[in-house]
Amino acid sequence: MAEQATLPEYMLQNARTMADQPAMRAKDLGIWKTYSWSDYADQVRAFALGLAALGFGREDKLGIIGSNIPNLYWAQVAAQCLGGMPVPVYQDSIAKELAFVLRHSEAKIIVAQDQEQVDKIISIKDELPNLKWLIYCWPRGMNDYDEDYLKSFDEVQAAGRDFDSANSGYFDAEIGKGKADDVALMCYTSGTTGDPKGVMLTHENLLSCGRIFAANEDVRPDDDYLSYLPMAWVGDTVYGLVISLLVGATNNCPEGPSTVMRDLRELGPTGIIAPPAVWEGMLSNLQLKGADATPLKRMVFAYFNDVAKRIEELKFDGKAIPGGLALAGKIGDFMVYGPVRDQLGLRRARWAYTGGAPMGPDTFRFFRGFGINLKQVYGMTEVAGLVSLQPDDQASPDTVGLPCAGIEVRIAENSEVQIKGPGVFAGYFQQEEKTAEAMTDGGWFRTGDAGLLDERGHLVIIDRKKDIIVNSGGDNIAPQRVEGIICIEPEIAQAVVFGDKRPHLVALVVPDDAWLKEWAAGNGKSGGLNELAGNPELAKALIKALGPVMERINQNLSPIEKVRRIVLADEPFSIDNEQMTPTMKTRRHKIKEVYGNRVEALYR
Q: Could you tell me the sign of the dihedral formed by the alpha carbons of 64, 258, 371, 363, in that order?
Protein backbone atom coordinates (compact mmCIF):
# COMPACT_ATOMS: atom_id res chain seq x y z
CA MET A 1 0.00 0.00 0.00
CA ALA A 2 1.10 3.57 -0.66
CA GLU A 3 2.72 5.49 2.17
CA GLN A 4 0.55 8.17 3.73
CA ALA A 5 1.63 11.19 5.76
CA THR A 6 -0.83 10.98 8.67
CA LEU A 7 -2.68 8.36 10.68
CA PRO A 8 -6.17 9.43 9.46
CA GLU A 9 -5.00 9.02 5.86
CA TYR A 10 -4.12 5.39 6.63
CA MET A 11 -7.58 4.92 8.13
CA LEU A 12 -9.21 6.16 4.92
CA GLN A 13 -6.91 3.98 2.83
CA ASN A 14 -7.83 0.90 4.87
CA ALA A 15 -11.53 1.74 4.57
CA ARG A 16 -11.09 1.80 0.77
CA THR A 17 -8.88 -1.25 0.32
CA MET A 18 -9.93 -3.49 3.25
CA ALA A 19 -13.48 -2.29 3.84
CA ASP A 20 -14.90 -5.61 5.08
CA GLN A 21 -11.84 -6.84 6.96
CA PRO A 22 -11.87 -6.65 10.79
CA ALA A 23 -10.25 -3.52 12.21
CA MET A 24 -11.32 -3.87 15.82
CA ARG A 25 -13.12 -6.23 18.18
CA ALA A 26 -14.50 -5.55 21.63
CA LYS A 27 -15.82 -8.01 24.16
CA ASP A 28 -18.99 -7.16 26.05
CA LEU A 29 -21.05 -9.52 28.22
CA GLY A 30 -18.90 -12.39 27.00
CA ILE A 31 -19.45 -11.74 23.28
CA TRP A 32 -16.87 -10.38 20.82
CA LYS A 33 -18.27 -7.70 18.52
CA THR A 34 -16.34 -7.02 15.30
CA TYR A 35 -15.99 -3.67 13.52
CA SER A 36 -14.75 -3.65 9.92
CA TRP A 37 -12.49 -0.93 8.54
CA SER A 38 -15.57 0.57 6.90
CA ASP A 39 -17.33 0.64 10.30
CA TYR A 40 -14.21 2.09 11.92
CA ALA A 41 -14.02 4.98 9.44
CA ASP A 42 -17.77 5.70 9.79
CA GLN A 43 -17.50 5.83 13.59
CA VAL A 44 -14.48 8.14 13.47
CA ARG A 45 -16.08 10.40 10.85
CA ALA A 46 -19.29 10.87 12.85
CA PHE A 47 -17.43 11.62 16.07
CA ALA A 48 -14.90 13.93 14.44
CA LEU A 49 -17.66 16.02 12.89
CA GLY A 50 -19.50 16.01 16.22
CA LEU A 51 -16.36 17.45 17.80
CA ALA A 52 -16.23 20.06 15.04
CA ALA A 53 -19.84 21.00 15.83
CA LEU A 54 -18.75 21.55 19.46
CA GLY A 55 -16.01 23.94 18.33
CA PHE A 56 -13.03 21.56 18.40
CA GLY A 57 -10.40 22.35 15.79
CA ARG A 58 -6.73 22.45 14.88
CA GLU A 59 -4.26 22.27 17.77
CA ASP A 60 -7.05 21.79 20.32
CA LYS A 61 -6.47 19.08 22.94
CA LEU A 62 -8.81 16.13 23.54
CA GLY A 63 -8.43 14.37 26.90
CA ILE A 64 -9.01 10.59 26.87
CA ILE A 65 -9.67 8.65 30.09
CA GLY A 66 -10.71 5.04 30.52
CA SER A 67 -9.69 1.50 29.78
CA ASN A 68 -9.26 0.08 26.27
CA ILE A 69 -12.57 0.40 24.42
CA PRO A 70 -13.21 1.16 20.72
CA ASN A 71 -14.88 4.52 21.42
CA LEU A 72 -11.72 5.93 22.99
CA TYR A 73 -9.54 4.79 20.07
CA TRP A 74 -12.03 6.29 17.62
CA ALA A 75 -11.95 9.52 19.63
CA GLN A 76 -8.15 9.67 19.35
CA VAL A 77 -8.22 9.31 15.57
CA ALA A 78 -11.17 11.72 15.32
CA ALA A 79 -9.15 14.44 17.04
CA GLN A 80 -6.27 13.82 14.63
CA CYS A 81 -8.64 14.10 11.66
CA LEU A 82 -9.35 17.70 12.71
CA GLY A 83 -5.70 18.53 13.36
CA GLY A 84 -6.17 18.24 17.13
CA MET A 85 -4.10 16.39 19.69
CA PRO A 86 -5.44 13.49 21.77
CA VAL A 87 -4.11 13.43 25.35
CA PRO A 88 -4.73 9.98 26.87
CA VAL A 89 -4.33 9.91 30.66
CA TYR A 90 -3.90 7.06 33.12
CA GLN A 91 -7.33 6.21 34.48
CA ASP A 92 -5.78 4.98 37.76
CA SER A 93 -3.98 8.26 38.43
CA ILE A 94 -4.70 9.97 41.73
CA ALA A 95 -6.81 13.14 41.45
CA LYS A 96 -3.82 15.49 41.87
CA GLU A 97 -1.91 13.93 38.94
CA LEU A 98 -5.01 13.73 36.78
CA ALA A 99 -5.79 17.40 37.35
CA PHE A 100 -2.20 18.39 36.61
CA VAL A 101 -2.08 16.62 33.22
CA LEU A 102 -5.50 17.77 32.03
CA ARG A 103 -4.87 21.35 33.17
CA HIS A 104 -1.32 21.51 31.82
CA SER A 105 -2.35 20.08 28.43
CA GLU A 106 -5.19 22.66 28.17
CA ALA A 107 -7.71 19.93 27.34
CA LYS A 108 -10.75 21.57 25.74
CA ILE A 109 -12.89 18.43 25.58
CA ILE A 110 -12.54 15.21 27.58
CA VAL A 111 -13.91 11.83 26.51
CA ALA A 112 -14.51 9.52 29.48
CA GLN A 113 -15.36 5.84 29.37
CA ASP A 114 -18.05 5.60 32.03
CA GLN A 115 -19.69 7.02 35.14
CA GLU A 116 -16.63 6.35 37.31
CA GLN A 117 -14.37 8.41 35.06
CA VAL A 118 -17.02 11.13 34.66
CA ASP A 119 -17.20 11.48 38.45
CA LYS A 120 -13.41 11.92 38.59
CA ILE A 121 -13.50 14.73 36.05
CA ILE A 122 -16.46 16.45 37.72
CA SER A 123 -14.59 16.36 41.04
CA ILE A 124 -11.67 18.32 39.53
CA LYS A 125 -13.67 20.44 37.06
CA ASP A 126 -12.85 23.68 38.91
CA GLU A 127 -9.14 23.01 38.29
CA LEU A 128 -9.62 22.71 34.50
CA PRO A 129 -10.18 26.24 33.14
CA ASN A 130 -9.98 25.15 29.48
CA LEU A 131 -12.57 22.37 29.73
CA LYS A 132 -15.72 23.08 27.69
CA TRP A 133 -17.30 19.65 27.22
CA LEU A 134 -17.21 16.25 28.94
CA ILE A 135 -18.33 13.33 26.78
CA TYR A 136 -19.13 9.90 28.20
CA CYS A 137 -19.09 6.66 26.19
CA TRP A 138 -21.20 4.32 28.35
CA PRO A 139 -24.62 5.62 29.44
CA ARG A 140 -25.06 3.25 32.39
CA GLY A 141 -25.71 5.24 35.56
CA MET A 142 -25.72 8.62 33.78
CA ASN A 143 -29.46 9.37 33.88
CA ASP A 144 -29.43 11.65 36.95
CA TYR A 145 -26.62 13.99 35.88
CA ASP A 146 -27.70 17.51 34.90
CA GLU A 147 -24.34 19.22 34.22
CA ASP A 148 -24.78 21.38 31.13
CA TYR A 149 -21.32 20.48 29.82
CA LEU A 150 -22.07 16.73 29.70
CA LYS A 151 -22.87 14.92 26.43
CA SER A 152 -23.00 11.27 25.44
CA PHE A 153 -20.80 9.79 22.73
CA ASP A 154 -23.92 8.89 20.75
CA GLU A 155 -25.23 12.48 21.00
CA VAL A 156 -21.97 13.83 19.63
CA GLN A 157 -22.00 11.34 16.76
CA ALA A 158 -25.61 12.25 15.93
CA ALA A 159 -24.64 15.93 15.87
CA GLY A 160 -21.69 14.99 13.66
CA ARG A 161 -23.97 13.32 11.10
CA ASP A 162 -26.14 16.46 11.01
CA PHE A 163 -23.01 18.60 10.64
CA ASP A 164 -21.90 16.34 7.76
CA SER A 165 -25.18 16.90 5.91
CA ALA A 166 -24.77 20.65 6.19
CA ASN A 167 -21.03 20.73 5.49
CA SER A 168 -20.35 18.28 2.68
CA GLY A 169 -16.65 17.70 2.12
CA TYR A 170 -15.57 19.21 5.46
CA PHE A 171 -14.22 15.93 6.90
CA ASP A 172 -12.05 15.03 3.89
CA ALA A 173 -10.84 18.62 3.61
CA GLU A 174 -9.70 18.67 7.25
CA ILE A 175 -7.80 15.40 6.84
CA GLY A 176 -6.27 16.81 3.68
CA LYS A 177 -4.82 19.73 5.66
CA GLY A 178 -2.87 17.33 7.88
CA LYS A 179 0.92 17.21 7.57
CA ALA A 180 3.52 14.67 8.69
CA ASP A 181 5.02 17.15 11.19
CA ASP A 182 1.69 17.95 12.87
CA VAL A 183 1.54 16.83 16.51
CA ALA A 184 -0.54 13.65 16.53
CA LEU A 185 -0.33 12.74 20.21
CA MET A 186 0.53 14.34 23.51
CA CYS A 187 1.79 11.59 25.77
CA TYR A 188 2.75 12.42 29.34
CA THR A 189 5.78 10.86 31.02
CA SER A 190 5.16 8.76 34.12
CA GLY A 191 6.71 11.30 36.49
CA THR A 192 9.09 9.14 38.51
CA THR A 193 10.94 12.18 39.90
CA GLY A 194 8.47 15.06 39.59
CA ASP A 195 5.53 16.36 37.56
CA PRO A 196 4.87 14.52 34.29
CA LYS A 197 5.98 16.23 31.06
CA GLY A 198 3.82 16.45 27.93
CA VAL A 199 5.72 14.74 25.10
CA MET A 200 4.59 15.99 21.70
CA LEU A 201 4.82 13.27 19.04
CA THR A 202 4.14 14.01 15.38
CA HIS A 203 2.53 11.76 12.79
CA GLU A 204 6.01 11.23 11.34
CA ASN A 205 7.40 10.24 14.75
CA LEU A 206 4.71 7.61 15.23
CA LEU A 207 4.53 6.32 11.67
CA SER A 208 8.30 6.08 11.24
CA CYS A 209 8.59 3.91 14.34
CA GLY A 210 5.62 1.83 13.22
CA ARG A 211 7.26 1.29 9.82
CA ILE A 212 10.59 0.37 11.43
CA PHE A 213 8.88 -2.15 13.72
CA ALA A 214 6.94 -3.66 10.80
CA ALA A 215 10.18 -3.93 8.78
CA ASN A 216 11.96 -5.78 11.60
CA GLU A 217 9.16 -8.05 12.79
CA ASP A 218 6.77 -10.52 11.18
CA VAL A 219 3.73 -8.22 11.10
CA ARG A 220 0.74 -9.18 8.93
CA PRO A 221 -2.65 -7.67 8.00
CA ASP A 222 -4.48 -10.63 9.56
CA ASP A 223 -2.69 -10.28 12.91
CA ASP A 224 -4.63 -10.03 16.17
CA TYR A 225 -3.37 -7.90 19.06
CA LEU A 226 -4.91 -7.58 22.51
CA SER A 227 -5.16 -3.89 23.45
CA TYR A 228 -4.95 -4.09 27.23
CA LEU A 229 -2.05 -1.85 28.25
CA PRO A 230 -2.86 1.72 29.40
CA MET A 231 -3.84 3.99 26.51
CA ALA A 232 -1.69 6.73 28.06
CA TRP A 233 1.44 4.58 27.53
CA VAL A 234 3.14 5.32 24.21
CA GLY A 235 3.56 1.60 23.54
CA ASP A 236 -0.20 1.10 23.34
CA THR A 237 -0.36 3.75 20.62
CA VAL A 238 2.67 2.59 18.60
CA TYR A 239 2.31 -1.18 18.91
CA GLY A 240 -1.47 -1.12 18.84
CA LEU A 241 -3.14 1.82 17.11
CA VAL A 242 -0.31 2.78 14.72
CA ILE A 243 0.56 -0.77 13.62
CA SER A 244 -3.14 -1.51 13.14
CA LEU A 245 -3.60 1.53 10.88
CA LEU A 246 -0.31 0.94 9.10
CA VAL A 247 -0.77 -2.74 8.10
CA GLY A 248 -4.48 -3.35 8.69
CA ALA A 249 -4.08 -5.62 11.73
CA THR A 250 -6.95 -6.09 14.22
CA ASN A 251 -6.96 -4.54 17.68
CA ASN A 252 -8.98 -6.50 20.24
CA CYS A 253 -10.29 -4.83 23.41
CA PRO A 254 -10.84 -7.05 26.46
CA GLU A 255 -14.08 -6.90 28.44
CA GLY A 256 -12.29 -5.13 31.25
CA PRO A 257 -9.04 -4.97 33.22
CA SER A 258 -10.11 -7.90 35.42
CA THR A 259 -10.78 -10.21 32.44
CA VAL A 260 -7.53 -9.60 30.53
CA MET A 261 -5.92 -12.99 31.24
CA ARG A 262 -9.14 -14.86 30.42
CA ASP A 263 -9.64 -12.87 27.22
CA LEU A 264 -5.98 -13.41 26.31
CA ARG A 265 -6.47 -17.19 26.53
CA GLU A 266 -9.68 -16.96 24.50
CA LEU A 267 -8.28 -14.73 21.76
CA GLY A 268 -4.82 -16.25 21.37
CA PRO A 269 -3.14 -13.16 19.83
CA THR A 270 -0.48 -13.51 17.15
CA GLY A 271 1.79 -11.00 18.89
CA ILE A 272 1.96 -9.56 22.38
CA ILE A 273 3.88 -6.91 24.29
CA ALA A 274 3.89 -6.99 28.09
CA PRO A 275 6.05 -5.50 30.84
CA PRO A 276 8.15 -7.88 32.96
CA ALA A 277 5.58 -7.75 35.77
CA VAL A 278 3.00 -9.44 33.52
CA TRP A 279 5.40 -12.22 32.49
CA GLU A 280 6.50 -12.70 36.09
CA GLY A 281 2.84 -12.89 37.13
CA MET A 282 2.19 -15.58 34.52
CA LEU A 283 5.16 -17.57 35.79
CA SER A 284 4.08 -17.21 39.43
CA ASN A 285 0.59 -18.48 38.56
CA LEU A 286 2.09 -21.49 36.80
CA GLN A 287 4.27 -22.20 39.83
CA LEU A 288 1.28 -21.95 42.18
CA LYS A 289 -0.77 -24.30 40.01
CA GLY A 290 2.18 -26.66 39.85
CA ALA A 291 2.40 -26.73 43.65
CA ASP A 292 -1.22 -27.93 43.80
CA ALA A 293 -0.73 -30.65 41.14
CA THR A 294 -0.32 -34.36 41.87
CA PRO A 295 3.20 -35.61 42.66
CA LEU A 296 3.42 -37.30 39.25
CA LYS A 297 2.46 -34.12 37.37
CA ARG A 298 4.94 -32.09 39.41
CA MET A 299 7.67 -34.59 38.59
CA VAL A 300 6.86 -34.55 34.85
CA PHE A 301 6.74 -30.72 34.80
CA ALA A 302 10.04 -30.43 36.68
CA TYR A 303 11.76 -32.90 34.34
CA PHE A 304 10.67 -31.19 31.13
CA ASN A 305 11.28 -27.75 32.61
CA ASP A 306 14.87 -28.85 33.16
CA VAL A 307 15.03 -30.16 29.58
CA ALA A 308 13.77 -26.81 28.26
CA LYS A 309 16.32 -24.94 30.36
CA ARG A 310 19.24 -27.06 29.11
CA ILE A 311 18.16 -26.70 25.46
CA GLU A 312 17.78 -22.93 25.80
CA GLU A 313 21.22 -22.61 27.42
CA LEU A 314 22.81 -24.56 24.56
CA LYS A 315 21.02 -22.41 21.98
CA PHE A 316 22.14 -19.27 23.76
CA ASP A 317 25.76 -20.46 23.74
CA GLY A 318 25.51 -21.44 20.05
CA LYS A 319 26.16 -25.12 20.78
CA ALA A 320 24.66 -28.21 19.15
CA ILE A 321 21.80 -29.92 20.95
CA PRO A 322 22.45 -33.68 21.49
CA GLY A 323 19.96 -36.00 19.79
CA GLY A 324 18.57 -37.41 23.04
CA LEU A 325 17.97 -33.97 24.48
CA ALA A 326 16.34 -32.80 21.23
CA LEU A 327 13.99 -35.82 21.34
CA ALA A 328 13.13 -35.08 24.97
CA GLY A 329 12.35 -31.51 23.91
CA LYS A 330 9.91 -32.72 21.24
CA ILE A 331 8.18 -34.98 23.75
CA GLY A 332 8.10 -32.08 26.20
CA ASP A 333 6.47 -29.86 23.59
CA PHE A 334 3.67 -32.40 23.21
CA MET A 335 3.20 -33.13 26.91
CA VAL A 336 4.04 -29.84 28.65
CA TYR A 337 5.19 -26.85 26.58
CA GLY A 338 2.30 -26.85 24.08
CA PRO A 339 -0.41 -27.19 26.76
CA VAL A 340 1.23 -24.38 28.79
CA ARG A 341 1.31 -22.07 25.72
CA ASP A 342 -2.34 -22.88 25.13
CA GLN A 343 -3.23 -22.21 28.76
CA LEU A 344 -1.49 -18.82 28.64
CA GLY A 345 -3.24 -17.84 25.38
CA LEU A 346 0.03 -17.81 23.41
CA ARG A 347 -0.65 -20.78 21.13
CA ARG A 348 -0.70 -18.52 18.01
CA ALA A 349 1.90 -15.97 19.10
CA ARG A 350 4.74 -15.70 16.57
CA TRP A 351 6.50 -13.07 18.67
CA ALA A 352 6.29 -11.69 22.17
CA TYR A 353 8.12 -8.71 23.66
CA THR A 354 8.98 -7.40 27.07
CA GLY A 355 10.28 -3.94 27.90
CA GLY A 356 10.09 -0.99 30.23
CA ALA A 357 12.12 -2.61 33.02
CA PRO A 358 14.69 -5.39 33.44
CA MET A 359 13.46 -8.97 33.41
CA GLY A 360 15.09 -11.71 35.45
CA PRO A 361 17.12 -14.11 33.26
CA ASP A 362 15.35 -17.16 34.70
CA THR A 363 11.93 -15.78 33.75
CA PHE A 364 13.15 -14.87 30.26
CA ARG A 365 14.66 -18.30 29.61
CA PHE A 366 11.66 -20.12 31.06
CA PHE A 367 9.30 -18.69 28.44
CA ARG A 368 11.75 -19.13 25.59
CA GLY A 369 12.39 -22.71 26.70
CA PHE A 370 8.65 -23.36 26.53
CA GLY A 371 8.56 -22.29 22.87
CA ILE A 372 7.43 -18.67 23.27
CA ASN A 373 9.44 -16.31 21.07
CA LEU A 374 10.02 -13.81 23.88
CA LYS A 375 12.40 -10.95 23.09
CA GLN A 376 13.34 -7.58 24.53
CA VAL A 377 12.45 -4.18 23.10
CA TYR A 378 13.79 -0.82 24.21
CA GLY A 379 12.26 2.59 23.76
CA MET A 380 10.71 5.48 25.64
CA THR A 381 8.03 8.09 25.17
CA GLU A 382 10.35 10.77 23.77
CA VAL A 383 11.49 8.50 20.92
CA ALA A 384 8.00 7.19 20.09
CA GLY A 385 8.58 3.95 21.95
CA LEU A 386 11.23 2.28 19.77
CA VAL A 387 15.02 2.21 19.68
CA SER A 388 16.16 -1.43 19.52
CA LEU A 389 14.77 -4.94 19.05
CA GLN A 390 16.16 -8.45 19.38
CA PRO A 391 16.18 -10.65 16.27
CA ASP A 392 14.59 -14.09 16.76
CA ASP A 393 17.95 -15.86 16.85
CA GLN A 394 19.67 -13.31 19.12
CA ALA A 395 17.25 -13.10 22.04
CA SER A 396 18.99 -12.61 25.37
CA PRO A 397 18.07 -11.44 28.87
CA ASP A 398 21.32 -9.44 28.95
CA THR A 399 20.66 -6.94 26.14
CA VAL A 400 17.77 -5.00 24.63
CA GLY A 401 18.76 -5.88 21.09
CA LEU A 402 20.23 -4.22 18.05
CA PRO A 403 19.46 -0.56 17.32
CA CYS A 404 16.93 -0.58 14.46
CA ALA A 405 17.96 0.57 11.01
CA GLY A 406 17.41 4.31 10.73
CA ILE A 407 17.85 4.86 14.47
CA GLU A 408 21.29 5.93 15.72
CA VAL A 409 22.53 5.08 19.21
CA ARG A 410 25.68 6.36 20.88
CA ILE A 411 27.11 6.09 24.39
CA ALA A 412 28.30 9.39 25.85
CA GLU A 413 31.40 9.74 28.02
CA ASN A 414 29.26 9.55 31.16
CA SER A 415 27.77 6.22 29.88
CA GLU A 416 24.45 7.83 28.97
CA VAL A 417 22.57 6.28 26.04
CA GLN A 418 21.74 8.95 23.45
CA ILE A 419 19.40 8.60 20.45
CA LYS A 420 18.98 10.25 17.08
CA GLY A 421 16.28 9.23 14.60
CA PRO A 422 12.86 9.97 13.07
CA GLY A 423 11.06 9.05 16.29
CA VAL A 424 12.66 11.78 18.43
CA PHE A 425 9.87 13.97 19.76
CA ALA A 426 8.95 17.52 18.78
CA GLY A 427 9.46 18.77 22.35
CA TYR A 428 7.81 18.99 25.76
CA PHE A 429 4.57 20.98 25.71
CA GLN A 430 5.12 24.46 27.18
CA GLN A 431 8.49 23.44 28.60
CA GLU A 432 11.15 24.75 26.23
CA GLU A 433 13.86 24.69 28.92
CA LYS A 434 13.20 21.01 29.64
CA THR A 435 13.25 20.30 25.91
CA ALA A 436 16.61 22.02 25.54
CA GLU A 437 18.01 20.08 28.51
CA ALA A 438 16.91 16.80 26.94
CA MET A 439 18.80 17.42 23.68
CA THR A 440 22.49 17.80 22.84
CA ASP A 441 23.78 20.50 20.49
CA GLY A 442 23.98 17.89 17.74
CA GLY A 443 20.34 16.85 18.04
CA TRP A 444 20.81 13.72 20.14
CA PHE A 445 18.17 12.89 22.76
CA ARG A 446 19.55 12.27 26.24
CA THR A 447 17.72 9.17 27.53
CA GLY A 448 18.94 9.35 31.12
CA ASP A 449 19.74 5.63 30.91
CA ALA A 450 23.24 4.30 31.52
CA GLY A 451 24.30 1.66 29.03
CA LEU A 452 26.83 0.26 26.59
CA LEU A 453 27.08 -1.41 23.19
CA ASP A 454 28.51 -4.94 23.40
CA GLU A 455 30.86 -6.61 20.94
CA ARG A 456 27.92 -7.71 18.74
CA GLY A 457 26.49 -4.21 18.59
CA HIS A 458 23.64 -5.02 20.99
CA LEU A 459 22.53 -2.30 23.38
CA VAL A 460 22.86 -3.13 27.08
CA ILE A 461 20.91 -0.96 29.55
CA ILE A 462 22.49 -0.86 32.99
CA ASP A 463 19.91 1.29 34.80
CA ARG A 464 18.56 4.80 35.03
CA LYS A 465 21.63 7.03 35.38
CA LYS A 466 20.15 8.82 38.40
CA ASP A 467 19.34 5.50 40.12
CA ILE A 468 22.81 3.95 39.93
CA ILE A 469 24.09 3.18 43.43
CA VAL A 470 27.74 4.03 44.11
CA ASN A 471 28.77 2.20 47.27
CA SER A 472 31.43 3.38 49.73
CA GLY A 473 34.05 1.42 47.79
CA GLY A 474 33.26 3.33 44.59
CA ASP A 475 31.55 0.37 42.86
CA ASN A 476 28.58 1.08 40.58
CA ILE A 477 25.53 -1.09 41.23
CA ALA A 478 22.36 -1.22 39.10
CA PRO A 479 19.49 -1.47 41.61
CA GLN A 480 16.86 -2.60 39.09
CA ARG A 481 18.88 -5.71 38.27
CA VAL A 482 19.19 -6.65 41.96
CA GLU A 483 15.49 -5.94 42.57
CA GLY A 484 14.53 -8.06 39.57
CA ILE A 485 16.49 -11.02 40.92
CA ILE A 486 14.93 -10.58 44.37
CA CYS A 487 11.41 -10.52 42.95
CA ILE A 488 11.90 -13.73 40.95
CA GLU A 489 11.41 -15.56 44.25
CA PRO A 490 7.69 -16.40 44.72
CA GLU A 491 7.82 -15.30 48.38
CA ILE A 492 8.63 -11.67 47.48
CA ALA A 493 6.33 -9.42 45.49
CA GLN A 494 8.23 -6.10 45.50
CA ALA A 495 11.64 -4.85 46.58
CA VAL A 496 13.70 -1.66 46.59
CA VAL A 497 17.41 -1.76 47.42
CA PHE A 498 19.50 0.99 48.99
CA GLY A 499 23.22 1.41 49.52
CA ASP A 500 24.47 4.68 48.04
CA LYS A 501 27.78 5.62 49.77
CA ARG A 502 27.32 2.58 52.03
CA PRO A 503 29.48 -0.55 52.40
CA HIS A 504 26.71 -2.95 51.32
CA LEU A 505 23.13 -3.15 50.07
CA VAL A 506 19.99 -3.45 52.16
CA ALA A 507 16.47 -4.03 50.87
CA LEU A 508 12.93 -2.93 51.67
CA VAL A 509 10.66 -5.82 50.70
CA VAL A 510 6.95 -6.55 50.29
CA PRO A 511 6.18 -10.27 50.79
CA ASP A 512 3.91 -12.04 48.31
CA ASP A 513 0.34 -11.84 49.59
CA ALA A 514 -0.46 -15.57 49.15
CA TRP A 515 2.80 -16.59 50.86
CA LEU A 516 2.16 -14.09 53.65
CA LYS A 517 -1.32 -15.45 54.35
CA GLU A 518 0.00 -19.01 54.36
CA TRP A 519 2.81 -18.03 56.75
CA ALA A 520 0.40 -16.19 59.06
CA ALA A 521 -2.04 -19.11 59.15
CA GLY A 522 0.80 -21.52 59.90
CA ASN A 523 1.88 -19.33 62.81
CA GLY A 524 -1.59 -18.85 64.25
CA LYS A 525 -1.81 -15.24 63.10
CA SER A 526 -4.13 -13.27 60.84
CA GLY A 527 -4.23 -9.90 59.14
CA GLY A 528 -2.49 -8.25 56.22
CA LEU A 529 0.99 -6.87 55.76
CA ASN A 530 0.20 -3.66 57.64
CA GLU A 531 -0.85 -5.48 60.81
CA LEU A 532 1.96 -8.05 60.69
CA ALA A 533 4.77 -5.61 59.82
CA GLY A 534 3.49 -3.16 62.45
CA ASN A 535 4.08 -5.70 65.23
CA PRO A 536 7.85 -5.75 65.99
CA GLU A 537 7.90 -9.37 67.12
CA LEU A 538 5.92 -10.59 64.12
CA ALA A 539 8.08 -8.48 61.79
CA LYS A 540 11.21 -10.15 63.19
CA ALA A 541 9.64 -13.58 62.71
CA LEU A 542 8.68 -12.74 59.14
CA ILE A 543 12.18 -11.50 58.31
CA LYS A 544 13.62 -14.68 59.84
CA ALA A 545 11.25 -16.77 57.66
CA LEU A 546 12.52 -14.90 54.60
CA GLY A 547 16.13 -15.62 55.56
CA PRO A 548 16.49 -18.78 53.43
CA VAL A 549 14.93 -16.89 50.49
CA MET A 550 17.56 -14.17 50.77
CA GLU A 551 20.30 -16.79 50.92
CA ARG A 552 19.06 -18.21 47.61
CA ILE A 553 18.91 -14.72 46.13
CA ASN A 554 22.45 -13.84 47.20
CA GLN A 555 23.78 -16.94 45.43
CA ASN A 556 22.76 -15.24 42.16
CA LEU A 557 24.34 -11.88 43.01
CA SER A 558 27.93 -10.70 42.76
CA PRO A 559 29.76 -9.87 46.02
CA ILE A 560 29.05 -6.13 45.76
CA GLU A 561 25.35 -6.79 44.95
CA LYS A 562 24.61 -9.09 47.89
CA VAL A 563 21.84 -7.87 50.18
CA ARG A 564 23.00 -8.02 53.79
CA ARG A 565 19.83 -7.03 55.64
CA ILE A 566 16.13 -6.57 54.86
CA VAL A 567 13.26 -4.65 56.39
CA LEU A 568 9.52 -4.97 55.69
CA ALA A 569 7.36 -2.32 54.06
CA ASP A 570 4.06 -1.52 55.79
CA GLU A 571 2.03 -1.98 52.61
CA PRO A 572 2.59 -2.79 48.92
CA PHE A 573 4.02 -0.01 46.75
CA SER A 574 1.08 1.30 44.72
CA ILE A 575 -0.29 4.18 42.68
CA ASP A 576 -2.65 5.11 45.53
CA ASN A 577 0.17 5.66 48.01
CA GLU A 578 2.19 7.47 45.29
CA GLN A 579 5.04 4.96 45.54
CA MET A 580 4.42 3.66 41.99
CA THR A 581 3.74 5.55 38.76
CA PRO A 582 0.73 4.62 36.59
CA THR A 583 3.21 2.64 34.43
CA MET A 584 4.16 0.65 37.57
CA LYS A 585 7.62 2.16 37.89
CA THR A 586 8.97 2.63 41.40
CA ARG A 587 9.06 6.17 42.77
CA ARG A 588 12.25 5.76 44.77
CA HIS A 589 12.24 9.26 46.21
CA LYS A 590 8.73 8.77 47.61
CA ILE A 591 9.65 5.40 49.12
CA LYS A 592 12.77 6.90 50.65
CA GLU A 593 10.69 9.69 52.20
CA VAL A 594 8.44 7.13 53.90
CA TYR A 595 10.98 4.49 54.92
CA GLY A 596 14.23 6.47 55.13
CA ASN A 597 14.59 6.19 58.91
CA ARG A 598 13.89 2.47 58.86
CA VAL A 599 16.48 1.90 56.14
CA GLU A 600 19.06 4.02 57.96
CA ALA A 601 18.51 1.91 61.08
CA LEU A 602 19.74 -1.16 59.16
CA TYR A 603 23.20 0.40 58.99
CA ARG A 604 23.36 1.24 62.71
A: positive
